[in-house]
Amino acid sequence: MEDRRLALAVPCDPELRTGGTIYDRRLAEELRARGWRVDWLRLPDGFPFPDGAAVAASAQAFAALPEGGLLLIDGLALGVLGELVERESRRLRLLGLVHHPLGYEEGLDAGTAARLIEQERAALRWPRRILCTSRTTARTLEADFGVETRRLVVIEPGTDPAPLARGSGGPEVRLLAVGSVIPRKRLDRLVRALAGLRHLPWRLVIVGALDRSPEAAAKLRSAMAETGVEDRVELRGELVGAALEAAFDKADLFVSASGYEGYGMALAEALARGLPIVAAAGGAVADWLPREAALLVRPEDETALVDALALAIADPALRLRLREGAIAARGGLPRWEEQAVLAERVLLAEAAA
Fold first, then answer.
1. Cα separation of 66 and 91, whole Å?
2. CATH code of residue 195
3. Looking at the DSSP assignment, which residues form a beta bridge with residue 206?
4. What three-state secondary structure class fits 278?
5. Which of 149, 156, 198, 301 is paired with 232 by a 20 to 30 Å CA distance?
6. pLDDT (mean) for 116-126
7. Digit-coded pLDDT (tens) for 188-210
8. Buried b or exposed e, range 4-25, using 16+ CB within 10 angstroms
9. What are the pLDDT digits (tens) for 69-82?
10. Residue 345 contacts by C-beta under 8 Å, 6 or more apart in sequence?
């Protein structure tokens, strides 16, 4: 009988709403539905900057796994546990899961970013296979981190079917941005871009946790105050369930200024609802987001972002064309059950090796 037991090591609460954790949790749920026993191996907080106690606790957790067991380690921890990963790779069937490189996160000083890149390059030598959430991430690991193509497997996030957004129905164009308020999302830049468009009828709703980066949250609030658009920007915090669905349903245009995305799950959620999109094409976004559904700009081109936002807000015919493009493309988004099948093939092959 096939061995269908997997330990999934993740350094955060499984209910945390980040793209990476949602991916990990949904993949685990779908594998369980296919008959797998998936044990969520909860590593300590503090990654990717663990203290000695966190590393020791991780080592103890790995050591408790049975000889030859399947272990999939989330990249948030994998990338900084090189020595431990090297040791356990001799005893376990060890695999990695990389959403995007740790050193590519914004808000890091140059020295810290370089150190993370070197740590991750060393750690990635040891997993038998590495699951990547996009083709962009896979190409990056091959080109910049020296990972052989044969060890890389692309398994994009799934997206659940969703009803088409009905829109605000009001005189203002309701813009929606979804994502934790962290430096990489560049929400302060989004606000400053919109501040130059006061003559246009828009209202921005930002949905995302405000406590993940106090610095980013402070910069966002400062941008709102300094540009005088506090009355046109709503910070809704983290929403789940019906409240999140309602935010998508009432949106007229989805917007993103993110500097880098390992995939862009919130963008896929918007596409699934037929929303027109204006987005910075950072990281993997340009690889999969259809031009028929979105106006894409280079992440560093702030003038282009302003121009794209102005076009989409001012031109209802353009928004309609982008919506039609999104409706046409949404059926091609991968589903979680399909992605679990791809992951299962990798896991079964490694379990049998």
1. 9
2. 3.40.50.2000
3. 177, 235
4. strand
5. 301
6. 97
7. 999 999 999 999 999 999 999 99
8. bebbbbbbbeeebbbbbbbbbb
9. 999 999 999 999 99
10. none
